[in-house]
Amino acid sequence: MIKFYKNILDRNLWSTGSITYYFAFITMIIIPVYHWFLPPFMILWGVFWLFEIRTRTKDIQHITPHNKLLFILFILFFAWQITGMLYSNNPKEGWRNITLRLSLFIFPLVLISPGDLIRQKVNILLRLFAISTFFYLIICCGYALYRSINFQNGIITFNSHPPVYTWLNYFYASELAIFQHPSYLSMYALFSAFIAFESFFDRLISKNQRICWLVVSIILFVSIYFLSSRAAILTAIITVPVYVFQKFRMRGENRYLGISMLVGMLILLPILLTNPRINKYLKWRSGKELSDMALKEGRITIWNTVNNIMKQNIVFGVGTGDIQDELNKEYVKSGNIKLAEGNVNTHNQYIEVMVENGLIGLVLFLSIFGMMLYISISEKNLIYMIFILIVLFSFIFETMLNRLAGVSFFALFSFLLLHIDTNERNLSPL
Question: Within this chain, do residues 279 and 412 fall inside the same structural domain, yes or no?
Answer without folding.
Answer: no
